Amino acid sequence: MQHNHSNKHIRDAIRYAESKGWRVTKAGPRAHIWGILWCPQRTREGCRIRVMSTPRNPEGHARDIHRHVDRCLHS
Questions:
Q1: Which residues share a beta bridge with 50?
Q2: Euclidean distance between CA atoms 26 and 33, whole angstroms
Q3: pTM of the entire structure?
Q4: How far apart are the first and last CA of the chain?
Q5: Dihedral sign (CA 22, 74, 51, 11)
Q6: Residues 7-25: pLDDT tens digits?
Q7: Any residues with CB less than 8 A from the CB of 23 and at least 6 apart, and which?
Q8: Residue ranges of the domains in the chain?
C-alpha cells in the first residue's frame, strides 16, 4: 500500500518498514503524529513506531525508524 509522507527520507523509511512486513496505520487529520508503524507480530508484545508528521530533524527520524525496524526481533 502506498503511503505518502511529506518528507522523502521518512517516506523511504516507511517503504523500508513495509518491505520488512510492518504495517502502517495513518493517524487522523487532527493528530500530532503522521501515523504508526506496527511490526509483523500482532500481539501486545509487538513493536510499534510513531511516525511524526513534522519532526525537527527528518533525516534523523528516518534513521531512527530504520534502526527500530532492523532491531525488531519479530521481523
A1: 36
A2: 9
A3: 0.90
A4: 18
A5: negative
A6: 999 999 999 999 999 999 9
A7: 37, 38, 40
A8: 8-71
